[in-house]
Design goal:
By secondary structure, the chain is an alpha/beta fold. It has two domains: 139 residues, Aspartate Aminotransferase, domain 1, CATH 3.90.1150; 272 residues, 3-Layer(aba) Sandwich (Aspartate Aminotransferase, domain 2). The strands form four sheets. Strands 4-12-11-10-7-5-6 form a seven-stranded mixed β-sheet, with helices on both faces. Helix 8 packs parallel to helix 9 and helix 12 runs parallel beside helix 15.
């Protein structure tokens, strides 16, 4: 460690002091991190005043652009009142109003919100609450979970146990609970000649078999509705959600919909579950719920589950807590975000934006090196073919670097290129992004071709 660096040398200082997430720090010896000092709208600016379009909403969180005036003002107004207060034995207007607004958005199906700070913690809450519910019901043997192949739910130990991405899980396998893994409905996995809807039916049959054998021990099924985001943006037909909801009802198993990445309008409806016309027993939110401003997460659940914990005995209460549960500043940001959804008719505007997004990437379908062109609302993705990826084994890091050269913040997942931009891009900006990504992608492939 060398602390003898210039005060304004942010790169040297971060490498001396900060351990970055999802990063092999040694790689930064050759390619240092970019120092971002400000943002405006869809743009991020470095300490060298270089602009980058935030094509991935800063890890899928930023809905309405950086330094959004309305959200900024809401936070400033709240800051002049109270910055934080514990939620045990106390309450505050923002957390009450936010909980009521979210319940209305679920049409009253999910009426109770339990808050935390990050997505993995919201998943932990849902898992623990499901297990504890069955224990209260005198069915403590129902303490196992089913997740989907290639699904991702976070990296705390409970959330990691229901994650099926080996990169995150392998090192910690001895620490985590074993789970049942059902086939993914991701239509890229379907055999040739099998359509997305039929593949969804086939995947549900595999889940049905697991439940037939294990339902007496299973507390809940957990899944990401419509899009398995960290699983290389794997998408599937909404009918799968309908089939799973019926199976969970039939076998007396909870359904947990992890909407941390896909909720808040990202897939077209406010909640991704709405696309299938179903409601889960638990629904988790984070990322976009505060429009990318402040850490906030929550797990919504039903009146039936809430009432199970409503008793005289403290032992039957849900004994889980976070210091910053329901933070007033974060709730203020979330309420401001929900007001923007209403005032600007965001979901309607996103329908047109998603059409523009597809048009901006029409070039993908004309290149045989690029496969599985797919879209769900404001998420668009495609993959390199197997042979192309084999010729470009460092593709993800190389495209990230080329993206920066083309004024883009991209973060490919393996051989998958995706965009998940803020909702504020206009038509010209969407087409600019598509053209720049095309240039960056082809520069990356050409670089390896001539290496």
């Amino acid at each position: 460690m060398n602390l003898n660096v210039a005060p304004n040398n942010w790169i040297s200082r971060t490498l001396n002091a900060v351990w970055h997430p999802c990063t092999q720090m040694k790689q930064h010896e050759l390619f240092p991190p970019v120092c971002i000092t400000r943002g405006q709208g869809p743009w991020l600016y470095s300490d060298q005043d270089q602009a980058y379009m935030d094509c991935i909403s800063s890890w899928w969180t930023n809905l309405f652009g950086h330094a959004n005036a309305r959200i900024n003002q809401a936070i400033v107004d709240q800051l002049n009142k109270i910055e934080h207060v514990m939620l045990a034995g106390l309450t505050h207007p923002n957390v009450v109003e936010l909980s009521e607004e979210l319940s209305l958005l679920t049409q009253g199906h999910l009426g109770h919100a339990f808050y935390a700070s990050d997505g993995a913690s919201a998943v932990e809450i849902a898992l623990k609450m499901s297990h504890h519910f069955w224990r209260i019901q005198g069915r403590s043997e129902k303490n196992e979970f089913i997740c989907l192949a290639n699904g991702y739910h976070g990296e705390t130990l409970g959330a990691l146990s229901v994650t099926d991405v080996p990169l995150f899980k392998q090192a910690y396998a001895p620490l985590i609970q074993g789970v049942h893994v059902a086939h993914t409905p991701d239509f890229r996995k379907a055999p040739e000649g099998i359509g997305a809807q039929k593949w969804a039916h086939m995947a549900s049959q595999n889940l049905e078999s697991l439940l037939e054998q294990n339902h007496s021990k299973v507390a809940a099924v957990i899944l990401e509705p419509l899009v398995q985001c960290a699983g290389q943006m794997g998408m599937y037909d909404p009918i799968y959600l309908q089939l799973v909801r019926k199976l969970c009802d039939r076998f007396e198993v909870h359904l947990i919909c992890d909407e941390i990445a896909v909720g808040c309008g990202r897939t077209g409806t406010f909640f991704a579950s709405e696309a299938a016309g179903i409601w889960p027993d638990f629904l988790t939110l984070s990322k976009g719920i505060s429009a990318g401003y402040l850490p906030l997460s929550l797990s919504l659940t039903t009146e039936k589950i809430y009432q199970a914990f409503y008793a005289d005995s403290m032992v039957e209460g849900f004994l889980h807590s976070h210091s910053y549960t329901g933070n007033p500043l974060a709730c203020a940001a979330a309420l401001a975000s929900l007001r923007i959804f209403k005032d600007d008719d965001v979901l309607k505007k996103n329908k047109q934006a998603s059409i523009n997004l597809k048009a901006a990437f029409s070039w993908v379908e004309n290149d045989e090196r690029l496969i599985h062109f797919r879209q769900q609302g404001m998420i668009l993705a495609f993959d390199l073919s197997a042979s192309t990826f084999a010729s470009n084994p460092q593709f993800a890091s190389q495209l990230f670097k080329q993206g920066l050269k083309h004024q883009l913040l991209l973060r490919p997942i393996g051989q998958t290129v995706y965009v998940m931009p803020p909702y504020i891009l206009d038509t010209d900006q969407i087409h600019w992004m598509g053209a720049r990504i095309k240039s960056a992608l082809y520069a990356t492939l050409d670089e390896n071709l001539h290496a």
